[in-house]
């Protein structure tokens, strides 16, 4: 079965979620583009968008219509060529409307998991729960006989899903980054028994979706979360260490500020955890810790905050929910105090913390300036060279953090998760939008404990 023929009948499980809706948008447009080719005009392309509620699916259709229209406007030149034989379509608006209609005709929203039974390709985008994923696959009668399954798991080993769902190697880890429609990175993970033809199809599809592909070996957490979770745990450890000499709220603020401003990152570590969601981070740790014994991949602090109702994540409109940090207009306004069980405004401690941390190296190098700098490598080398010569609290925290990040990156290579340091760096550069990779010459390899 060739590429376009296999994509004729596709399903997405968890289609109305944050990840699933992005996958539906990307894949349905790829299917629509294939259907416009002369050799495919007689074929019927169908994507079964499966989710638990009609309300959620209604929201998916609205999202899809908006996303496809934006995409069509950007590729109007190629669409004009594709619709060249349609004399009834004259102006750009008519062509865009025709394309949007074609994509929406391809997508069939449903709450019935059984609708995926006839699919040749199944994308699974359920939350990070092995039991839930297995339940979904069990609901797709006959899935093991013909469908190729691509799971969006960011941490669960592929071979475990394969063995417990009896998929016979017809499965591949296809880890989109959030949001799928924007993020360029895809981690592809082969299980122990993944069939070569399944892997080849996954690579072809990822490239057709214009994604940057990084392969990861089948180890819990893979490259992205393998680094992020350890990076997060280091940040938590540093905040707990600082909290012995200052209020916890000030410690969290300080580590967040240093991990953003002094490490030249797009956001601080606690802001990133809030963006992902403390509950999601806990789920990932719960996957990784028992599968990687002795690595200490758990956090009592995250468990405690979740017990207090502190979750993070995003609202439906994309605005940030409060987590470690409180947000007003997506700007940090306070820090959660687990003892007082309240958010303490920045105004109560920010000035004192900034004074203790000390100044940035001069000239400062904000992340936005760094990624757009015409001589980025030199600018970063100059900035971190000056940081290395400073003896302030912030400089010490930054050097410890950068060294630990590098240690984590090298560990992913030595532990056989990543094939090379270059792959680790590519994931952090592309998937996390870092200005530089963790394996670099700016920091020493060993962190001072």
Describe the structure.
- The chain has about 450 residues and is α/β, with parallel strands linked by helices.
- The chain folds into 2 domains: about 5-215, NAD(P)-binding Rossmann-like Domain (Rossmann fold), CATH 3.40.50; about 225-430, Orthogonal Bundle (N-(1-d-carboxylethyl)-l-norvaline Dehydrogenase, domain 2).
- It has 19 helices and 11 strands.
- The chain has helices at about 5, 20-35, 55-75, 75-80, 90-105, 130-140, 145, 160-165, 195-210, 225-240, 250-260, 270-275, 280-290, 300-305, 350-355, 365-370, 375-390, 395-415, 420-430; strands spanning about 10-15, 45-50, 105-110, 120-125, 150, 170-175, 185-190, 210-215, 325-330, 330-335, 340-345.
- Helix 2 (about 20-35) packs across helix 5, helix 10 (about 225-240) runs antiparallel to helix 18 and helix 11 crosses helix 15.
**How many domains, in number, for the residues?**
2
Rounded radius of gyration (Å): 23 Å
Sequence stretches where pLDDT stays below 50 over 5 or more residues? none
The CATH homologous superfamily of the largest domain:
NAD(P)-binding Rossmann-like Domain
Percent strand equals: 5-15%
Tertiary shape: globular
CATH topology of the largest domain: Rossmann fold
**Order of secondary-structure elements:** HEHEHHHEEHHEHEEHEHHHHHEEEHHHHH
**Relative helix content:** 40-55%
Mean pLDDT over the full residue set: 95
- Give the oligomer, counting copies of the same chain as homo and different chains as hetero: single chain
CATH C-level of the largest domain = Alpha Beta
Global structural class: alpha/beta
User: What's the total number of strands?
Assistant: 11
